[in-house]
Amino acid sequence: MKTVTGFASATIGNVACGFDVLGFAIREPGDEVILTLHDSEPSTSPVSIKAIHGDGGALPKDPKKNTSSFVVLKFLEYLRTHKDIDFQGHIELELRKNLPLSSGMGSSAASAAAALAAANELLGSPCTKMELVHFAIEGERVACGSAHADNAAPAMLGNFILIRSYNPLDLVTIPPPQHLYCTLAHPHIEVRTAYARSVLPRTIPLKTATEQWGNVGALVSGLLTSDYELIGRSLVDVVAEPKRAPLIPGFYDVKNAALEAGALGCSIAGSGPSVFAFSSSKETAEQVGSAMKEAFSTIEERLDADIWVSPVCHEGARTL
Amino acid sequence: MKTVTGFASATIGNVACGFDVLGFAIREPGDEVILTLHDSEPSTSPVSIKAIHGDGGALPKDPKKNTSSFVVLKFLEYLRTHKDIDFQGHIELELRKNLPLSSGMGSSAASAAAALAAANELLGSPCTKMELVHFAIEGERVACGSAHADNAAPAMLGNFILIRSYNPLDLVTIPPPQHLYCTLAHPHIEVRTAYARSVLPRTIPLKTATEQWGNVGALVSGLLTSDYELIGRSLVDVVAEPKRAPLIPGFYDVKNAALEAGALGCSIAGSGPSVFAFSSSKETAEQVGSAMKEAFSTIEERLDADIWVSPVCHEGARTL
Lengths: 320, 320
Description:
2 copies of one chain form a homodimer. Chain A is α+β, with helices and mostly antiparallel strands. Chain A folds into 2 domains: about 1-175 and about 315-320, Ribosomal Protein S5, domain 2 (2-Layer Sandwich); about 180-310, GHMP kinase, C-terminal domain (Alpha-Beta Plaits, 2-Layer Sandwich). Helix content of chain A is about 35%, strand content about 25%. Chain A has 10 helices and 12 strands. The first copy, chain A, has helices at about 65-80, 105-120, 130-145, 150-155, 195-200, 205-225, 230-235, 240-245, 250-260, 280-300, and strands at about 1-10, 20-40, 45-55, 90-95, 160-165, 170-175, 180-185, 205, 265-270, 275-280, 305-310, 320. In chain A, strands 1, 2, 3, 4, 5, 6 and 12 form a 7-stranded mixed sheet that branches. In chain A, a hairpin with a 6-residue loop joins strand 9 and strand 10 (about 275-280). In chain A, helix 6 (about 205-225) packs antiparallel against helix 7. The first copy, chain A, is globular and about 60 Å long. The model of chain A has no long low-confidence stretch (mean pLDDT about 95). Strand 8 of chain A pairs antiparallel with strand 8 (about 205) of chain B.
């Protein structure tokens, strides 16, 4: 019997102009997955779920339907077909869900990445993190119906991850500037990813698209050259934010509050309802957090919001 | 009487995925503009055109309609309204047109930038290059009906220039990797910018747009980190190239020839008909040029093509 605990943190996808192509990991909060290896052969599935904490009973316990166990099953299948490793034992999985569901914080990706980091170490680290990313992305299909990578990839690899292409998968790691801090505000409402996707148009004007990709290029340049002002000017989303903002009560109040408190820029985290902002110092990022919390609490809906301040995580998923 | 000669080189706009937002300058060929300052007051216009060489009589000689003189008039107007410099003399302009017209090589932008570099020095350098860029962009409106900046800005400033925003104008300079070479092939046909623009769709699928901006981000990352392979993989245009390729006889034959000869990537220069390719050495870039010339010459239309091999120009417009 051997036990390994995996950890992966919250990630923010759809980074303003980087809709569907750019995400990054923060250091905390994150999900923990504890895997225990038993030598005995499994009765039905090689992976079973022992317990899930912190989800309020919302997540499925069927190993094929729960993201964290599903990705471990995919990992084992890959070992058998690609690495000639035929796993005969049984893995018991315990999930400590610290990230809120449907929050825009990459909750399912964190569970998947944590499970994969643990499973890989449990079996002697046969895979690289880049190989594991593929299973983490497959997990997103189970969790929300679409195998998007902008949470799964940074949850596994850390840093900013740009998805140049899905087919073949081509990921570009962009290390964050040294003094970049993220403030994340999670208001206590849920927005389903599938619904947030349904409000988007299927086609957009070429002029709008051009504006968006000018900002994507500039954001990447700002990140790579530590040009904080340019990062701020590039955090513009003319495609998804205008459509999704109405799903988040008080979004523009919160955004304005963040900018007035000194944030470089502010937009919707993933598909919402969380809102993120960047600042060029920890002190400013904390003031921005207070301003965002205050703004959520004073709108008509008087929303309570959790606030986290964190640098971008370099490390990605790891074992504890 | 004082004479100054300005020079600005060819530029390539619409760099594959960077449609309307990314352009770069090469070192040669380029246009020359010779300005001569006379102290006598002008009879009608403060700028007159003395001669134009190399245009086959195609360019207008009315100072308000010719791009190179028009931008000098705009520059003088700006000096009067913003710098309190009331120019009382008369400038005579001679244009040595070395770039072919309607070629996709930024011909009008080169004339404008060369004229502005000369005019600024002639009057004691009252403006920065960044101020001059605005007039060069205005020149594009006269030349082709749209004030696009992806030729005018690199013609003036050199390097790769990313246009983050037009309003306000926000330009990001991206210095090229040390060993990046451009091969430019100009087949002897003309494609009018306005016509090449008319074949583009007004709206595009969101999925297509997302693919394009993933490539834009990756291209900027490749350029800034000297990742030549990534530059090659990112030189993908799923928006304009498929629509404009039919305007260039043999485009895909030429592109395939370039790639087979070792180019990192290949696409249409500006709105065509010129085709550019990147390579990671001068030797390869020259082989690529031979392959492109050969490919143009063996299609049914048997097109002759001029070939230039050049690194990216750091300097931008200058005086000789």
